[in-house]
């Protein structure tokens, strides 16, 4: 199974994913961003873009990597990854479904003011123009498709540990 933790940059996916992994036996974290990093290392480079998700190979490579890892070690992959383009999400989720890999899709949500404050107050990465640039696209995706496609965890007033417990409890209960 895959537990996909979606939401915009800076909402707490990486922190929450590590905590979810601690709560779900036989699980491991796979950050699909690393697939993008591999693609960025190809030289001479791929076409210029502001986001590696726009490169056509990224999405099927994420599917293939996840499939191969699950086939090798089994268990659950916890995948923290922002996907705000509906067509990209459909390509990934349909690709995983073609291999009969169940996906539990969660979205970590916070209101715009909370998101901006978290981005500006991040003591590890510091304020990030990249993260700020995705607040509005996230809110648009949330209104148009994303929240309807996933289990939404509002993180505005809770800790990452609380969010992780909610995700793990939902996964263990088998709900959607």
From TrEMBL:
InterPro entries: P-loop_NTPase (IPR027417). This is AAA family ATPase. It comes from Gryllotalpicola kribbensis.
């Amino acid at each position: 199974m895959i537990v996909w933790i979606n939401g915009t940059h800076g909402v707490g996916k990486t922190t929450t994913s590590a905590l979810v992994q601690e709560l779900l036996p036989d699980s491991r974290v796979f950050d699909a961003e690393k697939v993008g990093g591999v693609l960025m290392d190809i030289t001479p480079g791929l076409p210029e873009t502001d986001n590696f998700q726009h490169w056509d190979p990224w999405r099927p490579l994420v599917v293939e990597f996840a499939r191969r890892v699950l086939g090798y070690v089994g268990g659950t992959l916890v995948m923290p990854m922002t996907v705000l383009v509906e067509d990209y999400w459909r390509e990934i989720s349909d690709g995983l479904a073609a291999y009969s890999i169940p996906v539990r899709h969660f979205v970590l949500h916070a209101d715009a003011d909370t998101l901006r404050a978290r981005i500006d107050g991040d003591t590890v990465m510091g304020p990030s123009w990249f993260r700020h640039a995705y607040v509005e696209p996230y809110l648009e995706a949330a209104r148009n498709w994303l929240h309807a496609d996933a289990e939404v965890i509002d993180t505005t007033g809770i800790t990452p540990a609380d969010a992780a417990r909610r995700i793990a409890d939902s996964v263990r209960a088998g709900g959607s």
